From TrEMBL, chain A:
It comes from Streptosporangium minutum. This is histidine kinase. Residues 324-407 form the Histidine kinase/HSP90-like ATPase domain. The keyword ATP-binding applies. It is an enzyme of class 2 (transferase).
TrEMBL record, chain B:
This is DNA-binding response regulator. Residues 2-122 form the Response regulatory domain. It comes from Streptosporangium minutum. Keywords: DNA-binding, Phosphoprotein, Transcription, Transcription regulation. GO terms for molecular function: DNA binding.
């Protein structure tokens, strides 16, 4: 398995090397366009050349994510995509910080990036030469035939060269994954969006999510107020009135008073029931008592499906995260029962030191589309205010897996209470 | 009967103490927090304890934790847990030992003094008392999963009361059956659900609950 991964990495190094050449070619085209700008021909060339370069850098970003898991935030789309006259579009490109970053990358990638990925390849090919070619040719070459630092002129020195070649090959193959990771980081260094773009994006996102959080909060408070007003409060008023009547009837008609008092008992029970449901909706008590793990176990027990819960959390999460995660798990379970026609559900709760990850897998019919259901969109929104993401994998025929990830800290048990 | 009482709200503690005394119970200790409760449960050796689930200092499930810990150290110590809400998870934890002598009731139930005292007595005698709300949830789940489709409506009523921990006598009185009719129904239920019948009331409750939780 490891060998296979290493060999795949070697192939990718080779590919990255070839692509560096392509980048160099397109980069030269862009430089040519810039040089030709004073005579007007550059205008014609700049837009397609810059667009091609951006296509290459976009692919490079995507590759870094696919090959090594290095996430690189993309810059704003190139100014060329806006319509307008040719000179205006060229002007837009020249004013774009992302374009100049692409250009710097195009200039450095062939030398630095290309050299980096060439190291394992050189070791591999040179090693192959020592192993596969030297044993057959050293006799014909006579003295003066060297392999690395070994003068190959006899069988023992030939064997030494052979061993050295094998060593080179092993070194080349085994270093390839590491080199590829390093290349990914190098690409991120050059190609991630300018700091300002990232910050602007972040501010926009925070403003959006904050506004939504405030909306949700206000709506929630209104709901609680309404529930109290129409529920427990109204019942208590009615209860007071019935008590009053009962008091007045106590002497004249004890039997009727007794009936009314029984009514009071029932009304108070209903008022309590209302309050209980309200409290449960605001913050489920088991969540407050025990945290997310047991709260999800409790959800599982209440579900009509066969739910298996695997909790790998050694501690408590921040209360708002627990609350959001609980809500999302509850909704997902309800969806599995209602829409997917599932029978069994597996829930895994995990924390990798940086983020909480919850996955809910059901054996239903699948085919759930986040674009269609507004419920799913609502769940995504709920997680956004925590920088959380919800991904859905639901091929037709199932199984469906909903995975949510929320960055947060895990506090050790016992310290979070009190 | 010697009772330990744990309740942090003064008004409720006072009311419960009075109710228990009026019915001939001796309240040997009434405490208002988790650590004192555990001490009282282990040192005062009560015949039964009435415990509010949410207690200081953490105001989480302190009462339940103390009850579970006390029962770990002294299996079968009779404890009736009261709570503002019932949760299946907590019910399972209380039932887990399989020793019986546990109760889990909504706090509202204390307003019906007779039933409340009856529950305290049943728990003290080693019985199992589950709140109707716990049982209703379990039954609707079992129904949705098609586990109790074969039962008649009457049998469902009997099953519900059995699961709450009531004896044949109590079920007969509540449903206006004769005792022999109840016995016939229970036999039929056990046959249909393939639960091993048991004449011991407590083992019967546990078997029924175990079936419903499947």
């Amino acid at each position: 398995m490891r060998l296979k991964r290493a060999l795949v990495a070697v192939g990718r190094c080779q590919l990255a090397g070839l692509l560096a050449v392509a980048v160099s070619a397109v980069g030269s085209l862009v430089v040519l366009a810039l040089l030709l700008l004073p005579i007007g021909a550059g205008l014609r060339l700049l837009v397609p050349a810059a667009t091609a370069l951006r296509a290459l850098s976009d692919r490079s970003r995507a590759r870094a994510a696919r090959w090594t898991g290095t996430r690189i935030s993309p810059p704003e789309p190139l100014g060329a995509e806006s319509s307008g006259s040719r000179s205006k579009r060229a002007g837009g490109i020249l004013a774009d910080e992302g374009f100049w970053r692409d250009l710097v990358w195009a200039w450095l990638e062939p030398w630095a990036g290309g050299f980096l990925v060439a190291v394992p390849l050189m070791l591999l090919w040179y090693g192959a030469f020592g192993t596969l070619v030297q044993p057959f040719v050293w006799r014909h070459l006579g003295p003066g035939n060297w392999y690395a630092f070994v003068p190959v002129s006899s069988t023992p020195t030939m064997l030494a060269a052979l061993a050295l070649g094998v060593g080179f090959m092993v070194a080349g193959v085994s270093m390839a994954p590491g080199i590829l990771r390093l290349h990914g980081r190098w690409t991120r260094l050059l190609l991630s969006a300018p700091r300002r773009t990232e910050l602007t994006r972040r501010i926009t996102q925070l403003t959006d999510t904050r506004a939504r959080v405030l909306d949700v909060q206000a709506a929630e408070l209104r709901r609680i107020e309404r529930d109290l007003h129409d529920g427990a409060q109204a019942r208590l008023v009615a209860l007071g009135m019935t008590l009053d009547s009962a008091t007045r009837l106590l002497d004249s008609d004890p039997a009727a008073a007794r009936g009314l008092l029984l009514e009071v008992g029932e009304a108070s029970a209903r008022a309590l029931e209302d309050l209980r449901n309200l409290v449960h909706g605001i913050h489920p008590p088991v969540l407050a008592d025990r945290g997310l793990g047991d709260a999800v176990r409790s959800l599982a027990l209440d579900s009509f499906l066969d739910v298996h819960v695997d909790v790998r959390l050694a501690g408590r999460l921040p209360a708002p995260v627990e609350s959001a995660a609980y809500f999302v798990v509850g909704e997902t379970l309800a969806n599995a029962a209602k829409h997917a026609g599932a029978r069994e559900v597996g829930i895994v709760l995990d924390h990798d030191g940086l983020r909480l990850r919850v996955s809910v897998t059901d054996d239903g019919r699948g085919g759930a589309d986040p674009a269609k259901g507004s419920g799913l969109r609502g769940l995504q929104r709920r997680l956004e205010s925590f920088d959380g993401v919800l991904t859905l994998d639901s091929p037709p025929g199932g199984p469906t897996t909903a995975t949510m990830e929320i960055p947060c800290v895990l506090s050790s048990p016992k310290t979070s209470s009190c | 009967m010697r009772v330990v009482l744990a309740e942090d709200l003064f008004l409720l503690r006072d009311g419960l103490t009075r109710t228990l005394r009026e019915h001939g119970c001796e309240v040997v200790a009434s405490v208002d927090n988790g650590p004192s409760l555990l001490r009282a449960l282990l040192e005062d050796k009560p015949d039964v304890a009435v415990v509010d689930i949410r207690l200081p200092p953490t105001f989480t499930d302190e009462g339940l934790q103390a009850a579970l810990e006390a029962r770990r150290r002294r299996p079968g110590l009779p404890i009736l847990v009261l709570s503002q809400y019932v949760d299946q998870l907590y019910a399972n934890e209380l039932l887990a030992g399989g020793d019986g002598a546990v109760g889990y009731l909504l706090k509202d139930r204390v307003t019906n003094t007779e039933q409340f005292i009856d529950a305290v007595r049943r728990v003290a005698a080693g019985g199992t008392v589950m709140d109707p709300q716990v049982i209703t949830k379990l039954l609707s789940r079992s129904r949705a999963r098609g586990m109790i489709d074969s039962l008649t409506p009457r049998e469902l009523d009997v099953l519900e009361m059995m699961a709450e921990g009531r004896s044949n006598v109590a079920i007969a009185a509540a449903l206006h059956f004769s005792e022999s009719a109840v016995a016939k129904h229970t036999a039929s239920i056990f046959g249909k659900l393939q639960i091993a019948p048991s004449t011991d009331d407590n083992r019967r409750v546990l078997a029924v609950l175990a079936y419903l939780k499947r």
